Amino acid sequence: MARTGQRHATLRAIAQSAGVDVSTVSRVLNGSPEDAQRAASRQTAEEIRQWAARLNYRPNPHAASLRTRRSNLIGVLVPRLSDLVLATVYEGIEDAAARHGMTTFVMNSRDQAAEQRERTELALSRRVDGLIFGDAHIDGAFLDDIAGQQVPFVLVNRRAGDHPAVTCDDYEGGRLVAEHFLELGHTRVGVIAGEPFASTGIDRTTGFLDRYREAGVDVPASRVVHSHFDAAGGRAAADRLLRSRARPTAIFAVNDFAAIGALGALRDQGLRPGHDVAIAGYNDTPLAAELPIPLTSVRSPMHEMGARALELLLRVLAGEPAASERLTPALVVRASSENAPAAT
Amino acid sequence: MARTGQRHATLRAIAQSAGVDVSTVSRVLNGSPEDAQRAASRQTAEEIRQWAARLNYRPNPHAASLRTRRSNLIGVLVPRLSDLVLATVYEGIEDAAARHGMTTFVMNSRDQAAEQRERTELALSRRVDGLIFGDAHIDGAFLDDIAGQQVPFVLVNRRAGDHPAVTCDDYEGGRLVAEHFLELGHTRVGVIAGEPFASTGIDRTTGFLDRYREAGVDVPASRVVHSHFDAAGGRAAADRLLRSRARPTAIFAVNDFAAIGALGALRDQGLRPGHDVAIAGYNDTPLAAELPIPLTSVRSPMHEMGARALELLLRVLAGEPAASERLTPALVVRASSENAPAAT
DNA sequence: CTGAAAGCGCTTACAG
DNA sequence: CTGAAAGCGCTTACAG
């Protein structure tokens, strides 16, 4: 065993060096400021802190967790970490967690119910204080279940039922795209709607369709097609939309990667994005602006969503009121949606 | 405090139910198979296991870690988790870790020396058994330092010095691209070389240049430009390459995202990838095949690299011999590099 | 095959 | 302001 030896000193070592009891050292080093105050004179406290620095003291989190029954550990579930959207959300979670002295770990559920259960069970066996789910399904049976077991958790990116959630205002984001397409004069439009179980796709689609309905345009169901949230899924969905006889002149993909797939599908049919067919995506991923044909997209505050979800969970853990939050999206118009409908 | 109460039984509860000592329960439930064998009769063992199942026993990892001084925790450092390459490598690490009953957590270092130190220190204070670095810098001063402190670690994706590492054979990958360009007849070529401190960029570039040299073509230094590993970086680098009077007819970007940026730069100049200028990337990310102009790229086994790195670290922790591994890349030719040099 | 005991490094109620 | 003690849930050398 390549062991690393005694890298960190213990409270006891410091107590012996400073000639005080370990309980005093504990209160000075790891207690609340008030605890530290009343635990030792300024002089003693200072001496303890110096010994701690000299001996490279770091509290042993396993010992503390065992004693306090608080692990300062948060489990995070996402569909796939290699999805940039979730990776960015997780970065937000992790940054906020670090600020609050919490540790997080993340696992993929691949949007599979069995994996969600299994990973949650695993997190619980690791004694997490709480969980953040980035993979909620709109039906929410699983979540109701574990809420019933008093497991503290919040949702991020996707909402479900009345569980506390931090999301983008996806409904509003969908409306923004509709507004934009309407201004350009498009009335024959299509939607690449994402997974039917994800609130993101559902709300973005609903917002879009509602805004069109308000403008007096009913988008037929045949022009709303579900898809995976990736380029291959977007390509397949776009192929279906473009094959219909009355081809849409504008397509809203509820995800940037799906939009990139749609761009490819257009090209295969000899159609030019932003000329023959307008395309808009969602999330404004860093790639959107850098594509050969820059992609119109709805900016969503992915990093901030993650950070706020972590802070919402902290409130849940503290027993404070924890209301869901909906962050504001913003439309970013680029070359992929510059065209009015062709004069066909 | 929204506490979750007693979710899991303890050894003691099981011992009382089964009418045996907790040490026996421990050996049966958590010991090695041999331990379990000699710790109790088949009958007693069976009874203990039934009680464990009935009471939903899960060993408390904090208690076990405190006692054994082994946390089964691995810290992982990456430049950015929102970089798809690293996210995929991490998925490989995490999958392998789960198979071995280890927990991992991941942190961004943003390729900054100060953050590398700080995050490593944080991981150590969490009492990880070892570390995996996906953010090694070729100079390796920091790594030499912590190797000197006997911290067990391995590298993944990027190599440095003689530290055990699991990488793609990047040199060979660079050669594959050169071979391909040479077959098409390109002699005026450019390289978007990535960060100067990353072995990935260095080795891919060196392999490419060496193969050209062997073919009797010396690529001038002015046609090798460094870049960030993202689309914006690739676009900036491509702009520089295309501005020179003797424009390259083929460009190798050592990263798919940089290649996508280069695609955009070409288009801005009215050049068609795969017609006027050939483009190749690296990693064969899922997007490459789905782009409007599908991208030629070198496939690297990102997920497998991660899994193997975890297993290499396990060997290091066990004190077994741990040799570096270089996984084999493969060229995937697509439309972005179909052209011979223009007859200018 | 089984048990009793010690101890990992903390925290915290109690006492002074 | 400071200390002594108990105990969180495990593992493991020792003894029988």
How does this structure look, described?
The structure is a homodimer of 344-residue chains. With 344 residues, chain A is α/β, with parallel strands linked by helices. Chain A folds into three domains: 11-59, 434 Repressor (Amino-terminal Domain) (Orthogonal Bundle); 72-168 and 303-327, Rossmann fold; 170-301 and 331-337, 3-Layer(aba) Sandwich (Rossmann fold). In chain A, 45% of the residues lie in helices and 15% in strands. Chain A contains 13 helices and twelve strands. In chain A, the strands form two sheets. A six-stranded parallel beta sheet of chain A has the order 2-1-3-4-5-11, sandwiched between helices. In chain A, strands 7-6-8-9-10-12 form a six-stranded mixed beta sheet, sandwiched between helices. The longest helix of chain A has 16 residues, at 84-99. Chain A is elongated, with a radius of gyration of 26 Å. Chain A starts with 10 loop residues before the first helix and ends in a 12-residue tail after the last strand. Chains A and B meet through helix 5, helix 6, strand 2, helix 7 and helix 11 of A and helix 5, helix 6, strand 2, helix 7 and helix 11 of B. Chain A binds a DNA duplex (16 and 16 nucleotides) through residues 10-12, 20-24, 26-27, 30-31, 35, 38-41, 44, 59-69.
What's the structural blueprint in terms of helices and strands?
The structure is a homodimer of 344-residue chains.
Chain A: H1 11-18, H2 22-30, H3 33-39, H4 42-54, H5 61-68, E1 73-78, H6 84-99, E2 103-108, H7 113-125, E3 130-133, H8 141-148, E4 153-156, E5 165-168, H9 170-184, E6 189-192, H10 199-214, E7 224-225, H11 231-243, E8 250-253, H12 256-268, E9 278-283, E10 296-299, H13 302-317, E11 325-327, E12 330-332
Parallel strand pairs in A: 1-2, 1-3, 3-4, 4-5, 5-11, 6-7, 6-8, 8-9, 9-10
Antiparallel strand pairs in A: 10-12
Helix pairs in contact in A: 1-2, 1-4, 2-3, 6-13, 9-10, 11-12
The structure holds a DNA duplex (16 and 16 nucleotides).
